[in-house]
Amino acid sequence: MENTYIDANLDALDGLEAFDEKGKPLASRIKDVKSACAIFEGLRKADEHSSQNRARVDAMFDGANPYNQAQLNASGQGLKTNLNFGEAQRLLDISLSSYVDLYSSLEKLVEVRGTMGEASEIKPKEDIVAEELTHLLRAWPEFHSSYLRLCTTFIKHGVGLAYFDTPDDWKFRVGGFADVLIPRQTPSSENLIDVAVGRREYHLHELFGYIRNEEAAKKVGWDVEEVKRVLIKNASSRGRSNRYYDDWETMQRELKNNDIYEGHQNPTVSVLHFWVRELDGTVSHYICAEKSPKNFMYKKLSRYEKPEQAFVMFAYGVGSNGTYHSVRGLGHRIFNHIQTSNRLRCQMVDGAMLASAVMIQPDSQRAFDELGFTHYGPYAVLSPGVNIIEKAVPNLSNSVQPALNDMANQLARNTDTVSTYGPEQSSPYRNQMQVVADMDVSSRLSGASLNLFYASWNRLLREIVRRVVTGKKRDSFVEDFYRRCEARGIEREFVETLDVERTKAVRSIGNGSQVNRVSSLRELLGMMPQFDETGRKNLTRDIVATRVGHDLADRYIPQMEGARPTVDNKIAFLENKELMNGQPVPVVSNELHGAHLQIHVPELNQLIEQLNMGVADPVQSLPALQAFYQHISDTAQQIASDPAMEGLLGQTKQVLQFAEEMINNTSKQVQKMQRDAMQGQGQEEGQEEGQERQEGGSEMAAKMQEHQLKMQMAQQKAELDMQIKQAKFEQEQAIRDAENVMKLREKL
Hints:
alpha+beta; 3 domains; 14 strands
């Protein structure tokens, strides 16, 4: 049988040409529509056996019974239990739930990279564009269902495919090997697929829409006359005679007026898409009718620069020999187990029914014919000549149940799913480390499949973004995307100049498992002191979003607008200029106070060093010292209760002490300079007494001012110390309470 597949596959590839008679490379590897149909027929024959296997797998998931009911009836076993207990569908739902979580748990599906503007301005714009692209995808009504079909296809059968009908349409379609045929022994790489043939069913109005503007259709590659011929051949009239059209003018008029029952009575048109990899690596696109084509309906050489712009393959594994057809999905892995499990369960049901039944043996044929029960209230009377037989029914629960349990364990080991019903899972004696270890095994089992998925998901999202930002034809979704970006201050030029090749999918924390996500976030909590302020806020938001979802997370942890510390750093540098001029700057509560301190404190340190070295003017520096001291003190109060800021608070406190001493010393120095300046102004001896009195008054006022300043700084210092001590006390108290709770739990 395998030789038949190989021969059919080779016959299909014979329709692909590479060089002409003179040895020159051909621009098109498909000669004509006849060669294309020969390729399709060869690939279809090579896929017949695999198609039968896929049908059996689909039937298993759809609830097909383990026995052929007709055969049971013919053999006199029509009453035998014949049920599909749905175990395969349960395993599919478990596996599919991980892939659903990969995108449903995310706030943004993609990351983009801009090329315009300053570095500090690009990141906020990138985040906005990513948010709006995510909104674009989720606003598409078919996105969720298309994503589910894609995941279901490659989970079931091992390979799924997302493809595009046109170069401008960003909405992808989904298929599998039943919808898209490729040569057998094709390595699992899109760039190595020589030809792919997709089968589509089009309604008449869909095909007509491509050639509605005949001149424009001809320019992009449509054979208008061939499309008309196919439409006429497949369209029937509204009349009772059910005749076929032979007049394009009449048919076109009814198509425009929606008079043809294209969606109800008329059959759909079966169409073949051919994607052919040319010798230069580009991909040509051909479209023809499946039945009796005379020419290509559409032909465009080198339509795509590379295969992923036309289609993206999703694989459940790498296969036994690295080819697409060697990849086995969940359905192939569990088929034999599920069939055997269903039959064993059916046997258990039959055994239970037999055990609960009464076994009666008539003495004669007459007794059998006259067999009957007569009920008298709580008891019944049998006909004469009938005996009740004591039976010994085997205990199937002792023989069948262990086999079922073993098969369930084998399924858990051989698939990417972990059963939630095993005895080890429900044991109350499992400690926290055992739970974490089990989750680690689960994550490790699904990691390979998830990595393969993300590799393909990255390519698909990258192609979608490319079509959205560079496409010439923009539908209502894309136009709404641009309007939303402009409303948030993002220029069209910024979007259109994105570095599309650096687009990638955002990975979900926990690899598709909420349990793993919670565990990962708990581990990150232990590392929170090492994060900057933005990182801590993001972690807190992720924890909240895991519990309530990203939509409700804004109620508790509002999403931060703008960039990471870059914007706050820029604001802090601007504040430094105001503070250096001695201007007071208020502290805003929603700032990244840690980032501000990291900018302000070094500037204050530098000013103190300049005064110590005598290179700074005391008179001009004193207002700056006082402004920095006040602003940094107020900023430190904002983070005094944050235990993660304890180290930064300690450094800030030390610098504030140095600044306090420098303010006192500089104030004395300025006062002395003022006295010396006033003494130099005296010229007459008669004025000395009055000057002394004036100096004494000035000196007294200076001392009073100095005393008030000391008292103010001492009060601020005391308040700051008190806040730090209170925060430390509350933290220690919380730790002691947690330890007591843990000790109590251990005792219980």
